[in-house]
């Protein structure tokens, strides 16, 4: 599999009220695995984290300046292209490799408070993380950006409204208390006849606020399955890596959501007679807390770069009192290159270089 060289970092500029997109070159993060004489260098301690300067922005995005707008934009990745949307439903597709912009049709039949997306083939599926229900009906929409080359306008792209996720079994239809939160997504191939299914785990809602369940959405038939009483064992979106024992990789939902994990989703089942949760195959410990003492971990992201290589991006903050006894918050993001190898039927993680970037008058928005 080819190596993806760049990871996109989007931050919001607090001073200018816009968004900056930077590209982190991951090719320099991975060290040689053998020395000049052919001896293996694996298993050695990785070099310490280096403090580096953020690269210059390759693109700025300005939201519309309106009284009734919060100036919020959302960014999603479709293959190597960035899809940017605003609160008014306008959308563009940015290709940083060209670079070039493509205008897209008006998006989002309903505004999404915290969108989460997953790419399936040439299509991008978008769901709101925060979903509320009223009399059993979802108040948030589920949509897809679909490519149809025969469409004469908008370069063949169109938005399609899809059936919303049904309310979980534990949801109570009594206003705010029946809100649920989407915690994780994964695309699972069901074979040539069954097509691809999107698995969605959600939790919360009413009296069983700590409950969780998982649905499967059939992208071909456009229907949802009955929920299974288990949740996916990771946070965010998992990526399928067939060369690594046909497993899905993401950030573990355990261990404070900080470490890379591998899951066997193929072993899971939604059958009422033989309902089986997915197997957490491996959790890779890379001593996050010990490496960044004094910092508080906020979020973690795992991006598969190809050939078993991953970028692990972790966002931290740290408070420090100034002379006026207010707290100044230092924010930083640490990018780490790690490599997962399959040897003798077992998975091994190799830690490569790490770089830390400080934010000045900006805050992290998303890593793509």
UniProtKB/TrEMBL annotation:
Entry-linked Pfam families: DUF1668
Stated name of the protein: Uncharacterized protein
Organism: Miscanthus lutarioriparius
């Amino acid at each position: 599999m080819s190596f993806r060289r760049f990871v996109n970092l989007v931050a919001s500029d607090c001073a200018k009220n816009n968004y900056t997109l930077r590209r982190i070159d991951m090719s320099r993060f991975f060290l040689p695995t053998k020395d000049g004489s052919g001896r293996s260098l694996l298993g050695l301690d990785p070099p310490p984290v280096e403090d580096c300067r953020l690269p210059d922005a390759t693109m700025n995005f300005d939201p519309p300046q309106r009284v009734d707008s919060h100036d919020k934009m959302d960014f999603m990745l479709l293959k190597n292209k960035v899809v940017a949307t605003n609160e008014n439903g306008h959308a563009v597709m940015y290709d940083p490799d060209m670079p070039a912009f493509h205008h897209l049709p008006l998006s989002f039949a309903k505004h999404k408070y915290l969108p989460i997306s997953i790419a399936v083939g040439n299509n991008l599926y978008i769901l709101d993380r925060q979903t509320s229900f009223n009399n059993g009906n979802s108040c948030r929409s589920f949509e897809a950006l679909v490519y149809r080359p025969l469409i004469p306008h908008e370069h063949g792209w169109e938005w399609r409204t899809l059936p919303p996720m049904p309310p979980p079994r534990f949801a109570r239809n009594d206003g705010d208390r029946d809100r649920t939160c989407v915690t994780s997504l994964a695309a699972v191939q069901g074979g040539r006849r069954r097509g691809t299914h999107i698995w969605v785990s959600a939790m919360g809602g009413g009296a069983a606020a700590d409950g969780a369940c998982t649905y499967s959405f059939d992208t071909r038939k456009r229907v949802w399955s009955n929920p299974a009483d288990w949740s996916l064992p990771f946070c965010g979106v998992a990526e399928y890596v067939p060369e690594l024992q046909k497993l899905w990789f993401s950030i573990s939902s355990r261990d404070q959501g900080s470490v890379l994990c591998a899951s066997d989703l193929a072993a899971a089942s939604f059958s009422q007679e033989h309902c089986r949760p997915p197997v957490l195959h491996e959790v890779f410990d890379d001593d996050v807390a010990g490496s960044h003492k004094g910092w508080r971990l906020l979020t973690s992201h795992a991006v598969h770069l190809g050939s078993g290589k991953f970028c692990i991006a972790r966002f931290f903050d740290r408070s420090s009192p100034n002379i006026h006894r207010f707290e100044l918050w230092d924010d930083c993001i640490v990018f780490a290159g790690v490599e997962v190898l399959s040897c003798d039927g077992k998975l091994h993680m190799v830690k490569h270089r790490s770089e830390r970037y400080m934010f000045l008058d900006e805050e992290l928005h998303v890593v793509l």
